[in-house]
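Name: YwiC-like protein
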Amino acid sequence: MIFSPVLVGLAWAVSLTSLIGSAGSGDRGPGGADMLRMSLTTAAVTVAWVAGYLTFFTVGKWLPARRSGNRRILRAAGVPLACYGSVTAMAVVCAVLLQPHLLWWAVVFAPLTVVSVYEIWRGTPRSLIAGAAETVTSALVIAALATTGPGSTSAVTGGITLTRNVFSSEVVASLPPELWVTVIWLALYQVGTVLYVKTMIRERGSRPWWRGSVAFHVVALAVTTATVFSGDLAVVPWLIAEAVMVRALWRSWSVPRQEVFSRRTEEATGTGGSRKPTWTPRKVGLAEVPLVVAVTVAGILTAVLFNGPILLYIG
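Structure predicted for YwiC-like protein:
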């Protein structure tokens, strides 16, 4: 959730900026200042996301400790919370000063963050709602980072222009649909992983959760399949994303069924129900690494191979 959206978002920022640059030097203002602004803003947004994630993780320790009055954890979490929080705030301020249109993203990220923090406060940080909010926020970082490329560009006369107005959504609204496809791929995979992991750990052995996880993965595969019709989407990254969703669907159905329900049968018949679980939490996590890498590669390739039209408007 930390690095995958950053890598895809950076690929989109570079790709879109390159396309804007191809409008022609005669139509552009001084490009050096634009590239410096883009680089600084992209770095600021990246730092804000990483430090913000660490801040949120620390809040997950600090807030329950405050409710329970655990002074030891409060002291232990206090310093990192202050450090990560300060770095996050400074990075956000820098990014908004460089490209004020980024403030629009507060409309999206603030409610999702509130939902996640509320779930921590009520003592259910591992709930499905919290997991979905966190993973969707992570996927949306792709789009936020991508706007640091177009948002750094000077106004041009060839149909590509810029808005720097606060709370202006024009830069966001005019991002290509292929970019939103990569956001959807990552969001679907990550939310599906939340469900799958629950069927393997906290909701282990629950048939309703298992069925719900499989049903979600079926929908995720169908949506991913439908994205092939999205404008100038390249076929190769779509095939990779499709393979990821097929594999995710298969493991969401087969692994819990094999690990949990077959053990119940063994316990009922007395034929080996005492054996230790094959899929430990560590093994469940490590098995996801190839899928995370693949969906990240699919997003990066989509950005690199994108050569469609892009149009931004002055607000």
